[in-house]
Write a structure and sequence with these properties.
heterodimer; A: 565 residues; alpha+beta; 12 helices; 31% helix; B: alpha+beta; 9-stranded mixed β-sheet; 6-stranded mixed β-sheet; 17 helices
Chain lengths: 565, 688
């Protein structure tokens, strides 16, 4: 890339054009994908990456937030592999799912394609998508008992699925033999290849129109601009060092809390996130690989400064220190299937630390768990069924107002299926699909409410599995706000209601026809001192049943009883 | 008795289009929209052109009364009665959030929690009744809601799409005691699976009922008092019209009434002019709305969100909006990048040049500074003069100085970035559906769109633009053109192998009977009546459905249902068209049946709108003005557009003016007045 200067008008136009290329790549895959995780939940992402460093240049706006930071690691892994092989060629496309190289988990299939212009490598295009099934012990690859990545899915290191423009059928055959759903996988693969093709065509047009020098200069300028923006945001914060610590309940294998700790340091226009004091890597699948940890810091930062672009320049002023062989830098083959729970906790501690430095910019903790609940069984006609979904909770109170009731997780934008769709597909009935009173953290601006889902099984012989968190350690408030309620899971047996020993992680509890499970999710933490909450707002909360009268009096005092609400 | 009147009430202006079929003439009027009661402007606008309402056969109205009530949360106080355990569905949405980044923002449903009553009742997904509805509890809930001052009520039961019995019984019980007709019931409004979407649509319908029916009653009475004896009809979001009784019962179907009428008109005008593929661009004060018409058919989307969490699921013309309108503010961020919007000065205070208090430069200010808008004759008639110097100073301060650009360079930069964003929206709506934008014509309408036409040709590679004769009143014209249309849906949710042809036929027949009954009740004459049937289908295991058009004949009002084999074949074709492949052993599922019953209204001859005078091009020319293009000022000819004779060819740079619009023909482009009074803009070399 050159250091040529570029006029501001062309830069503004090119910035929009390049964002559009990646948005179009997103749209292409969403439309083509067979698999609802991509088509509906948009669990995918596309972008353009630097030819030498793999840094993110531009990324589509419609994909999953966590991918915004993690994709460049997939490209870096390919750059290293290609350098080692020494024969990178125009028309090559690499594919892999190895999470220890590319971050997140093994369900995410990454495709990376070098883009050549005039015989020279110009940049990389990449596509990631969550495939429905990639082998392993459990359909859908969510194995709470995994102690090695080998038990989670088949593992593919970076290999070429296309060489000089020719698809390698051998690789496709291997892929298709290792999934329970080859038709779905083939649809996703075609969609991802199509998105990369479209990206290359659009780049051809753009470079044809503006010339590669101008576009390269624009890419440099955009990275510099992202860096400038980030530096100006950081510089506006006071210098200092702030710490926060929180815990995962356990790793699903041993019931021991796992600390996640961060020290946030602001030094002029530099930011340091130091995770010293975090638990070492563990046996169960709540580990994450280092790329995931770095990407997660990016997600937290972008939530604090939402106007920052999706460009690696943002991270230049940020130094991330992760202790070796910790929960946040687990080495192959440590299992990483439950990575979502761990990065949600990382975001929480970053918010808690940052709220001390910038109380006007940071929201309190969201509910902080994905709550992957599956109920499976056999129908009376022998047909097996598996109902699998993630559940929602409250968002944290913010400087502007109360948190959102029943939102999705900060790392995702996925929606929940309607209960009627679930009831039409599986023999269950939702007795409750309701807001959970007293689940939000109190505050000047309280958190949003979590939910209560009560599900009755309508046929014999079902089994329930849960992978969740926040059963022992509640989502925290910030700036004096109170914590939310913890996650509670209960299930019915002949002798009454029970809770699992690991609180929110459970395997294979048998349920009879007519028995129920009940998941009560946390709300968000509170923002600001509860006693400063407008008594009228408290009275309204009580009148509408968001907060019970007893809880209101306990946390907010008695002033609300005097209002004429 | 030969006049038809289309009235479109927008946020700023009320537009009236009067077609006199006897004399073959059309007249337009534009008056400020009256607030809060829009009926004042409505009647004033008609009064400008028509003295005697008894000469009017039909008044067709595109309204934003519903849209505004939703956006501004000014609907009625309503209550809901719902299934035990589910009163919070409306507030919990589908577990989404307003913005991807920032984790801020909140949602207040239109019904507060204390007015959401639960009653014992439960239907299962297979339609069997698990718990019969407790009617005493329903009556108690209804009385509590009445005591709480609710003006309307919605009844929302789980799985009512599969069996409406419990809901129907509850609705009957409520209707016995409810003092007005504002009782909505989810299986009547939208018998389709997905409770949040159905509940939200039904609750918002109830929320609008008192407001919209009151408004339509006032209009109807005023029209009748003025001697009007014809039909009064309302445009729906799907681009079809309905009678006022239906509109009072289903006001939610007006959620996007105004913009839909504009797209209908655009499609008809373009098709008549020989361009069945057209992308419309409506540039308003705060936004640019894009819609795609392929083969003279608008694309319908099944649902939309009026605002975060306010989901409306009724078929509506698909319109993509980006925040780049005339009032969008240009600003330079901390990283030195020029941005347009999303913040907007709207129409009040409006651009800097309006002198109404805004000091930050807008897209319109850039157009003014570059001479593209005449500062001495502003459109709309509210202001007498525009302040060019103030606009230039604002551009200098907020864009020129931070980027080290002169005034005109900075103004050009603002337009370039705004045009690029508008072009991006056009690219996306076409490419997302697999269309090549090159085969489309671009049709600007609304006040500002025709200033940006050239940029769309150059940036997107679109071949030509077509500027309609009256771009400022396109929506009002669309009201006169629109067909009458009723949409129905019913969730089936069965494998094709398990479908009973009989029961499917029964539902189709029910839809057709109800649709024909509504057409008959309207008292309108139709050129033809059409029925369109579609199934939402997918392979088992897939959640995204494809719309499968069914080849069904209706003879003498009787439906001849398709066989299962015909359904399978239709699915294969639709699926292959969408995804380019089929699955070998895929089992097919039918999710929903959708029926549209359409009464084709007589079309008027668009040559009515053509210039009739005998003047020449020279007669139409009013002078010249200096206009800035690229990096230089050009002596630019100004024409009075409405006086240009058919066949006139004008090479850029030129400006065509008319009371409500300015059409810009940039250097290198050429405009031609076609037989209908449209201006067709192409590259000079293509204007043969």
């Amino acid at each position: 890339m050159t250091d040529q200067t570029i006029d501001p008008i062309t830069l503004a136009v090119l910035a929009g054009r390049m964002e559009q290329i990646t948005d179009e790549m997103d749209a292409t895959l969403f439309r083509a994908a067979f698999n609802p995780i991509i088509a509906e939940a948009h669990d995918a992402s596309h972008g353009l990456y630097h030819a030498e460093t793999g840094d993110t240049l531009v990324q589509g706006k419609s994909g999953l937030p966590i991918f915004v930071g993690v994709m460049s690691f997939a490209v870096k892994a390919v750059i290293e592999k290609a350098a080692a092989d020494g024969d990178l060629a125009d028309g090559d496309i690499y594919i892999f799912n190895d999470a220890h190289l590319g971050g997140t988990h093994l369900s995410d299939m990454r495709l990376v394609r070098p883009y050549f212009r005039d015989g020279k490598l110009f940049c990389y295009l990449a596509s990631v998508g969550h495939w429905h099934d990639v082998g392993g012990a459990v359909p859908g690859n969510y194995n709470p008992a995994a102690t090695e990545a080998f038990q989670e899915a088949f593992i593919l290191p970076p290999v070429r699925i296309a060489r000089k423009g020719v698809l390698q059928q051998d690789i496709i055959d291997i892929l298709m033999r290792n999934t329970r759903l080859p038709q779905s996988a083939m649809g996703d693969l075609n969609g991802q290849l199509g998105a990369l093709d479209l990206g290359a065509r659009r780049l051809d047009e753009l470079l044809g129109e503006y010339g590669s020098k101008t576009v390269a200069a624009a890419l440099d300028a955009l990275a510099n601009r992202a860096e400038t923006l980030m530096r100006s945001e950081v510089e506006a914060l006071p210098d200092g060092r702030w710490e926060a610590e929180d815990f995962l309940d356990n790793d699903g294998i041993t019931d021991t809390p796992l600390p996640i700790k961060v020290a946030l340091e602001i030094d002029g226009d530099r930011m340091i996130l130091d995770f010293e004091g975090t638990a070492p890597a563990t046996a169960g699948p709540v580990n994450i690989a280092l790329p995931t940890a770095v990407a997660c810091c990016y997600v937290a930062i972008k939530h604090i400064f939402p106007d920052l672009p999706a460009n690696a320049g943002v991270m230049r002023p940020v130094e991330i220190r992760v202790p070796e062989k910790s929960l946040l830098s687990a080495e192959f083959p440590a299992p990483v299937g439950g990575y979502t729970e761990t990065i949600l906790r990382m975001i929480d501690v970053i918010f808690s630390a940052a709220s001390q430095a910038a109380p006007d910019k940071v929201v309190a903790n969201a509910y902080g768990t994905i709550n992957a609940l599956s109920i499976a069984g056999k129908r009376s006609n022998g047909q097996p069924w598996v109902m699998f979904s993630f559940y929602g909770g409250g968002h944290g109170g913010s400087p502007e107002g109360d948190g959102l009731n029943h939102g999705n997780a900060p790392i995702s934008t996925a929606t929940i299926p309607p209960l009627e769709i679930l009831e039409a597909a599986y023999p269950v009935m939702f007795r409750q699909w309701a807001l959970r009173p007293d689940s939000a953290g109190a505050g000047t601006h309280r958190g949003g409410l979590g939910a209560t889902y009560e599900i009755e099984v309508l046929e014999e012989q079902a089994e329930a599995f849960l992978f969740g968190e926040r059963g022992r350690f509640a989502p925290q408030g910030v700036v004096g706000g109170a914590p939310a309620a913890t996650n509670i899971f209960e299930y019915e047996q002949d002798d009454g209601w029970h809770q699992p020993p690991m609180t929110s992680k459970m395997r294979g509890i048998k349920l009879k026809k007519g028995q129920r499970v009940k998941l009560m999710t946390p709300g968000g933490g509170g923002y600001g001192t509860p006693l400063e909450r407008d008594p009228k707002a408290v009275a309204r909360d009580v009148a509408l049943g968001y907060v019970t009268a007893e809880a209101a009096t306990e946390t907010y005092g008695t002033a609300w009883q005097e209002t004429d609400q | 008795m030969s006049k038809m009147i289309g009235v479109d009430v927008g946020g700023t202006f009320t537009d009236v289009f009067v077609l006199d079929e006897a004399t073959g003439t059309a007249q337009v009027a534009k008056v400020p929209t009256s607030r809060p009661d829009q009926s004042g402007g409505f009647l004033e606008g008609i009064g400008r052109q028509v003295d005697d309402l008894s000469t009017v056969t039909a008044v067709i109205h595109g309204t934003t009364a519903g849209t505004n009530a939703l956006l501004e949360r000014k609907g009625a106080r309503i209550g809901i009665i719902t299934t035990q355990g589910l009163r919070d569905v409306l507030e919990m949405r589908r577990r989404d959030r307003p913005q991807t980044w920032g984790l801020r923002g909140n949602f207040e449903p239109v019904v507060t929690r204390d007015l959401r009553k639960e009653v014992p009742e439960r239907t299962l997904a297979d339609g069997s009744i698990h718990t019969p509805v407790d009617l005493d509890a329903v009556r108690k809930a209804a009385n509590e809601l009445l005591d709480a001052g609710c003006a309307a009520v919605a009844i929302l039961f789980a799985n009512a799409y599969a069996n409406a019995d419990n809901e129907a019984k509850a609705a009957a019980a409520v209707r016995e005691i409810w003092p007005n007709p504002h009782v909505s019931c989810s299986s009547e409004i939208l018998p389709e699976i997905r409770e949040y979407e159905r509940f939200s649509t039904t609750a918002l319908n109830a929320y609008l009922q008192p407001e919209v029916s009151g408004y339509l009653d006032r209009l109807d009475n005023a029209l009748r008092d003025g001697g009007f004896g014809g039909e009064f009809m309302i445009v729906q979001s799907n681009g079809g019209v309905m009678d006022t009784d239906t509109a009072c019962r289903l006001p939610i179907r007006t959620a996007l009434s105004g913009p839909a009428a504009g797209v209908i008109a655009a499609g008809y005008i373009a098709d008549t002019a020989g361009f069945p593929d057209v992308i419309t661009g409506d540039m308003g004060g705060t936004s640019f709305d894009v819609s795609l018409i392929a083969d003279a058919k608008s694309v319908l989307s099944p649902q939309t969100s009026i605002d975060f969490g306010m989901v409306v699921r009724t078929p509506m013309i698909e319109i993509t909006t980006i925040g780049a309108g005339g009032g969008s503010i240009a600003w330079v961020d901390k990283g030195g990048l020029l941005n347009i919007g999303p913040e907007s000065a709207g129409s009040t205070p409006g651009p800097v040049a309006y002198g109404q208090g805004n000091t930050r430069p807008t897209v319109t200010d850039a157009n003014i500074v570059l001479g593209r808008i005449d500062p001495d004759n502003p459109i709309g008639g509210k202001l007498s003069k525009l302040d060019v110097e103030a606009a230039a100073a604002a551009i200098d301060k907020h864009v020129g100085e931070p980027l080290s650009l002169g005034t005109y360079e900075a103004a050009e930069a603002i337009l370039k970035v705004a045009n690029s964003r508008m072009a991006g929206a056009i690219r996306l709506v076409s490419i997302e559906r697999g269309f090549d934008p090159k085969r489309f014509a671009f049709m600007p309408f609304g006040g500002g769109g025709a200033l940006h036409t050239g940029a769309m040709l150059i940036e997107v590679g679109i071949g030509r633009a077509i500027v309609p004769r009256y771009p400022g009143v396109t929506s009002a014209l669309g009201c006169v053109i629109a067909d009458m249309r009723q949409d129905f849906v019913q969730t089936i949710n069965a494998l094709t192998s398990a479908i009973e042809s009989r029961s499917l036929a029964d539902i189709m027949q029910r839809h057709v009977d109800e649709g024909m009954r509504l057409l008959d009740a309207s008292g309108t004459t139709f050129d033809a009546r059409d029925t369109v049937f579609e199934l939402d289908m997918a392979y088992v295991g897939q959640t995204h459905t494809v719309a499968v058009p069914l080849p069904v004949t209706v003879t003498g009002g009787k439906v001849v249902p398709p066989t299962i084999e015909e359904i399978d074949r239709a699915f294969d074709k639709a699926y292959h068209d969408t995804y380019g492949r089929l699955l070998n052993k895929g089992t097919r599922r039918v999710m929903n049946l959708r029926t549209s019953v359409i009464g084709r209204r007589p079309k008027f001859d668009l040559t009515t709108l053509a210039p009739s005078g005998t003047g020449t091009m020279e007669d139409a020319r009013t002078g010249t003005r200096q206009v800035h293009f690229g990096n230089a000022w050009h002596e630019t000819a100004i024409y009075n557009r409405l006086e240009l004779p058919v066949g006139s060819r004008i090479d850029g740079p030129a400006i065509l003016v008319q009371p409500d619009t300015t059409v810009l023909i940039e250097p290198g482009l050429s405009g031609r007045a076609d037989d209908y009074g449209n201006t067709i803009i192409t590259r000079v070399e293509e204007n043969a």
